[in-house]
Design brief:
single chain, 175 residues, Pyruvate-ferredoxin Oxidoreductase, domain 3, five-stranded mixed beta sheet, 5 helices, 38% helix, globular
């Protein structure tokens, strides 16, 4: 990987944006990447907007993702898509709560981890590295539920990607 991978996570205070970026940065470190992380809390204690940037690659010099350069925009709250869409590059991937079946999650507080699972399907880190980072990021009593949520997001996104590839005519297109 010669260029940095840029990820922006956005949501509202209390949704787990900061925990999600902590886990994302940890898994990238475990995979041997140079990692930088930044967060903007704003009015997070009153349910306001929260964002976190994570950049990883061979060499990363700044923690902030430049506007229009995010490879991935992971949004925990649908109302936060439009205010943060400008961060996404034209070929970037938007991951919203619709990416995971909420009725299958162990509880609604695991949505952030389920969406990390969906994101993980697009990234080069091994599933075992993700699970190690999750185990390190949560008390043991919360690990099992978060592991289940992560796998729901990861496997659902991989299945969705396979379906999309099957629907695309063979014209050398990458989906």
């Amino acid at each position: 990987m010669t260029k940095a991978t840029n990820i922006v996570v956005a949501g509202l205070g209390g949704q787990g944006v900061l925990k999600g970026t902590d886990i994302l940065a940890d898994v990238a470190l475990r995979a041997g990447y140079d990692v930088k992380k930044s967060e903007i809390k704003g009015m997070s204690q009153r349910g306001g907007s929260v964002t976190g940037d994570v950049r990883f690659g061979k060499h990363v010099f700044s923690p902030m993702v430049p506007a229009g350069e995010a490879d991935f925009l992971l949004v925990l709250e649908p109302t936060q898509v439009e205010p943060h869409r400008y961060m996404l590059r034209p070929t970037g991937v938007l991951i919203t709560p619709d990416a995971v079946p909420a009725d299958q999650l162990p509880n609604k507080k695991t949505l952030n981890v389920a969406l990390l699972g969906a994101l993980s399907a697009h990234l080069p880190m091994a599933e075992a590295q993700w699970l190690d980072a999750l185990r390190a990021g949560f008390a043991e009593t919360f690990f099992d539920g978060n592991r289940k949520a992560f796998l729901i997001g990861r496997h659902g996104q991989k299945a969705q990607a396979r379906t999309k590839k099957e629907e695309v005519p063979d014209r050398g297109q990458t989906v």
